[in-house]
């Protein structure tokens, strides 16, 4: 059964206009004129995104979406209101897990973008929950398509993180979860505009505030997908800094989960050695000195020392090689791709 989109509004003209708009984009909508009708549809359909008006006869949109939190927790919820009401907006976010709160009259492109983003979010959660390696890696690569400068980034971060974790003697299952968390550490960027991701200069204050949300958005996806604590910690905390000046929580030192401290080293080093929209890449020797200078500030000193000992000077192995899942000979077909991406970056 394919996941569908549902619009709920007691105004039939609005529903018909919505059907026409989305049909022009190749998306067929389910519609309901009240919450009771909508709840009945959930018995027979897999609904990925629901867009509901707030003021309707009978159950309000807010109460309806609160009920969906129990009935269909994965459904992405969008609440629409004709009135600016901060209390309703906060209740929607806190009690109903509403993804977006929009005001009437909404703009066509605005509602199209929100629903498309909601569909991507729903599909991401479903893929993550299956914990299928091919799907997870493909998902990471799809996220990277939003920012062409990060091609191969998730794979390389996984390899660097696995080299560190293996040298530290962490258990095999922890290594596997570090790989998944590394692949998905930027999954929250599906909610960030390409305008911000691909800007030619450094982010301004407002853009950076938006960018910082990707850790919480990603962690929310990971929670819904019921990923392991190791993977969730990486997604939420890979931008924390050892001195407590990072985000999202400003954790300090060993209060930052170990796996997130490991991935932070891998993430920063790979960012330094690849081209970005606002600067060129640094030579590996320069990048090593730059991360060394971050010891005790952004990065955990002990983990950094392990990294500097194990980071290869030549081609990167694959994550499968690091985990001993394939031999170097078997991985020969994969390694040139990684090397090529690294050389181009």
Structural class: alpha/beta
CATH superfamily of the largest domain: Hypothetical protein af1432
Helix content: 40-55%
* Strand numbers in spatial order across the main sheet: 2-1-3-4-5
Largest sheet: 5 strands, parallel
Described by the principal axes of the CA atoms, the overall outline is elongated
Corresponding CATH architecture of the largest domain: Orthogonal Bundle
Question: Beta-strand percentage?
Answer: 5-15%
Total individual domains: 2
Low-confidence residue ranges = 333-345
Roughly how many Å is the radius of gyration? Answer: 22 Å
Domain Response regulatory: 4-119
Modified residues (4-aspartylphosphate): 53
Organism: Geomonas paludis
Protein name: Two-component system response regulator
In short:
With 345 residues, this protein is α/β, with parallel strands linked by helices. Helices cover 54% and strands 8% of the residues.
Explain this structure:
With 345 residues, the protein is of the alpha/beta class. It folds into 2 domains: 125 residues, 3-Layer(aba) Sandwich (Rossmann fold), CATH 3.40.50; 187 residues, Hypothetical protein af1432 (Orthogonal Bundle), CATH 1.10.3210.10. The protein has 16 helices and 5 strands. Helix 1 links the parallel strand 1 and strand 2. The longest helix is centred in the middle third of the chain and has 23 residues. 37% of the residues are buried. Pfam families: HD_5, Response_reg. One of its GO terms (biological process) is phosphorelay signal transduction system. This is Two-component system response regulator. Keywords: Phosphoprotein.
